[in-house]
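Not sure how to ask, but would you mind making up any protein sequence you like and the tokens describing how it folds?
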Amino acid sequence: MLCGVIAPLFDDEILNEYHDVLNRPKFNFSKKLINQFLFAITENGVYSKRVKSEEYFSDPKDVVFYEVAMSKDNAYLVTGNTKHFPKVSIVVTPAEMIRIIETL
């Protein structure tokens, strides 16, 4: 992201989710580091509006990530929990995303 190879898609709900998760005590991230990370996303990413999906999600908090990924052509949803999302080509693991980037 910082090198301009990828641009994260985000909306306010995603930024709020990242903020909440990164502030969990088990991660022990400093407020400064969290703020720098969120700032980097907003500066290097693309604010996107959700595209309504009729797919079923076992965790309603996952829907926003999928719907934002659906908002742009050639976008991917990168996750370690692919089983939580529909089996479509835009949902990839981190390893799959690395392979995609290497082909660019």
Q: What stands out?
A: The first strand starts at residue 9 and ends at 10. The CA atoms of residues 83 and 91 lie 10 Å apart. The two ends are 14 Å apart (CA to CA).
